[in-house]
Each structure stands twice: as structure tokens, then as C-alpha cells.
């Protein structure tokens, strides 16, 4: 009898243990599938990483843990106001994990048992295409802005044509522009960036200029590279727009040719750019030219920049400069009736008319891509 009771008790305990196991297993599965309740603190990197994490409520030990786990995946020095974060806590207030959002990349670090484990993933995005055309009225910036073209796209447009069109002096009313560009957005609606696929500018002073993107570079309709040996002008539209944008003032600059060079009338302090790669051969005071800078370039070319108010930090004799680098700022030093840039170019000692120098394309499209490229041009500009 006693043996039967023991057997019955053992069987009952086995059933209870199996039931408990199944219940526990079911609970664990349920917990893994169910979203855990979290509280979060979010913001953007308006300050250093450590400062933002302290603002979110993390102590020094956890911040150090996060830094160690993420330092090989992300540069904290490159985080800025356009980058954001979210710090997640359990409902009990315990830190669980951090997510950093930079462009389409997501950097995550999970905290458990005093250790942090990080990973990098990419947020899905979608692309929207825009096609905009119009006529110039007053100036390029106002005309394009009125068509709702984003500021960064306008500046990219002027960069593409900076070797063929001087948007500060050659723009006239009734000139025509067209632009095809893409906007990349995350599904949450965050803009990741823009890319111009094709563009054109047709003006009374400039003629027709076309640029089509192909394998990461831009070419005209014949496959000649958009980049040239010389920029169209030493006053760069992007540099000047960046300088004046916050004052909501975009000057319409003028130039005259009273001598062997070109005088660009511009407000004092306007940035002046090197028109080509080269080496600074002189930077200092030079009589009536005031603060004067000279750059030697390939093929015997020399460019000079006079009446500057001051030089940039890199403008020292003997230093190399790249095309587009800011070398100084417009002024009225020396003999000058007002702020302007005296710009001159010569080759092998002979002064040249800069406005009539033909563009020397830095790189043309390889012939094996010509057919494919022509088809792409036709899609954007079927009437060419």
C-alpha cells in the first residue's frame, strides 16, 4: 500500500514539474515576443556627446561604457545638431540602450551587467524625384527659391556650373534654368540628402550649359567633363552665399575692365577664391595694389588678386592651394576708390583676357560610355 502511495506521489510531482516547466517556457516565449515597455529621452547633438548623455540622465560610468563600445564605429567629434539620439530606460528607470541617428545610419549600444554591446544598422529610405524649370527674375537665388528648390540644391547647382557660368555677374532677367534632382528620405520623414541628376542654364551672357551626372561625375551633352582648369570667377557663389545668407542679402556683383585685369565690385569682406590649383608665390603689400596675392599655376599661368582687406589663414608664400580655396577677402587697400577685387591672369608673362580663355576640361567621358551617356542625356533633354 505504501509503495502505491509513493508511486502516486512521484507521478503527481512529475506532472506538476512538467506543467511548471511548460508554464515557465510559455512565459519566457511570451516575454521575448512581447515588446518591453520603455521610457525614452531624445534630443540632438547640440553639445558634446558626454554633455548630451548627462542631460539624458546617464551617470559617468554608463557614459564611459557607451563610449568604449561605440568609439570604433562612430566619430563622436563629427556628431552635430543634424544628428539625433534616443536613450531608453525601463519603467523602473534603469538604463537599457542608446540609439544614435546619423544620416541613414543607426548606432545602437545595449547595456547589461555593467557591459555595453554595440552594433551599426541602416535605416531604410525612399527616393523622390523632382523636375523644376523657370526663368530668372532679379537673381538666381530668389528665382530658384520661389520654386521651392532647397538651398543646398541651389548651391550644388552653382557648384556644378562654377567652371562655365559666373552666377554673380553673368545672370540676366529672362535667362532660363532647369534642374532634375532626387531627395532621399527615411520612412519617418527625415531628409537624408539631395542629388542632382541633370541641370541646364541658358543665358544671354552665358549661352547654353548642360550637365548630366554619370558614374558620380558631371559632363556636358558631348561628354566633356564639367570641371575645368579654371573656375569661371574668383568670387565663388557658394562662398559668397554662405557669407551673406544669414543677413538675407545676396549681392548682384558687377565687374569692369578698366585695364589689363578685371575689377569685381563687391562688399568688403567678400571671400575670394583661388581659380585653379597652384602655389602662392607672393602674399603681402604691393604699392597701389595694397594687400596683394599671386599664385603660380601649371602651364605658365599666373593669377593675381589685389586690394584685399586681409589674407586667409592659409595664404602664405610657398603654400599650395586648391581650386576654390579661400585665399583672402575683398577690400580697398592701396589705391582704391571703394571695395573691389583687382583680378588679373597672365601666361608666360603675357596678360590675357580671362573672360575669353577657353575652358580646358579636366576629364572627359571615356568613349566606351558615350552611347549609354547619350541615351541618358536624351531622357532629360530630348530636344538637344
The percent of residues in helical segments reads 10-25%
Order of helices and strands: HEHHEEEEEHHEEEEHEEEEEEEEEEH
**Class of the largest domain, according to the CATH hierarchy?**
Alpha Beta
Computed structural class = alpha+beta
* Known CATH architecture of the largest domain: Roll
Show unreliable segments: 1-36, 243-252
Shape, principal axes of CA atoms: globular
How many domains comprise the coordinates?
A: 3
**If helices are DSSP runs of H or I spanning 4 or more residues, what is the number of helices?**
7
Largest sheet: 10 strands, antiparallel
* Subunit organisation of the chains: single chain
Distance N terminus to C terminus? 106 Å
Question: If you consult CATH, what is the topology of the largest domain?
Answer: Nuclear Transport Factor 2, Chain: A
* Beta-strand content: 35-45%
Cα-based radius of gyration, to the nearest Å: 31 Å
The count of β-strands is 20
Q: Please state the average pLDDT score.
A: 84
Amino acid at each position: 500500500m505504501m509503495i502505491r502511495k509513493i508511486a502516486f506521489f512521484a507521478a503527481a510531482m512529475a506532472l506538476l514539474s512538467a506543467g511548471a516547466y511548460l508554464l515557465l517556457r510559455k512565459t519566457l516565449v511570451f516575454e521575448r515576443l512581447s515588446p518591453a515597455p520603455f521610457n525614452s529621452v531624445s534630443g540632438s547633438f547640440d553639445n558634446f556627446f558626454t554633455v548630451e548623455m548627462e542631460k539624458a540622465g546617464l551617470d559617468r560610468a554608463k557614459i564611459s561604457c557607451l563610449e568604449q563600445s561605440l568609439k570604433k564605429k562612430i566619430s563622436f567629434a563629427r556628431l552635430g545638431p543634424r544628428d539625433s539620439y534616443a536613450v531608453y530606460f525601463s519603467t523602473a528607470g534603469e538604463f537599457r540602450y542608446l540609439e544614435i541617428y546619423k544620416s541613414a545610419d543607426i548606432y545602437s549600444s545595449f547595456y547589461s551587467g555593467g557591459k555595453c554591446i554595440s552594433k551599426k544598422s541602416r535605416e531604410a529610405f525612399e527616393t523622390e524625384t523632382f523636375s523644376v524649370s523657370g526663368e530668372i527674375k532679379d537673381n538666381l537665388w530668389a528665382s530658384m527659391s520661389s520654386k521651392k528648390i532647397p538651398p543646398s540644391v541651389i548651391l550644388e547647382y552653382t557648384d556644378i556650373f562654377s567652371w562655365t557660368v559666373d552666377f554673380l555677374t553673368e545672370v540676366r532677367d529672362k535667362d532660363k534654368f532647369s534642374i532634375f534632382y532626387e531627395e532621399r528620405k527615411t520612412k519617418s520623414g527625415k531628409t537624408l540628402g539631395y542629388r542632382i541628376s541633370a541641370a541646364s542654364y541658358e543665358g544671354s551672357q552665358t549661352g547654353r550649359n548642360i550637365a548630366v551626372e554619370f558614374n558620380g561625375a558631371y559632363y556636358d551633352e558631348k561628354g566633356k567633363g564639367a570641371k575645368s582648369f579654371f573656375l569661371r570667377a574668383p568670387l565663388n557663389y557658394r562662398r559668397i552665399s554662405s557669407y551673406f545668407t544669414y543677413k538675407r542679402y545676396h549681392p548682384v556683383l558687377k565687374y569692369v575692365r578698366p585695364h589689363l585685369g578685371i575689377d569685381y565690385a563687391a562688399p568688403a569682406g567678400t571671400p575670394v577664391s583661388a581659380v585653379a590649383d597652384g602655389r602662392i608665390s607672393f602674399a603681402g603689400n604691393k604699392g597701389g595694389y595694397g594687400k596683394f596675392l599671386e599664385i603660380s599655376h601649371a602651364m605658365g599661368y599666373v593669377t593675381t588678386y589685389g586690394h584685399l582687406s586681409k589674407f586667409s589663414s592659409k595664404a602664405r608664400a610657398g603654400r599650395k592651394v586648391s581650386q576654390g580655396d579661400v585665399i583672402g577677402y575683398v577690400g580697398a587697400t592701396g589705391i582704391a576708390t571703394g571695395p573691389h577685387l583687382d583680378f588679373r591672369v597672365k601666361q608666360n608673362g603675357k596678360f590675357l583676357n580671362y573672360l575669353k580663355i577657353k575652358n580646358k576640361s579636366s576629364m572627359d567621358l571615356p568613349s566606351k560610355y558615350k552611347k549609354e551617356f547619350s541615351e541618358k542625356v536624351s531622357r532629360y533633354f530630348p530636344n538637344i
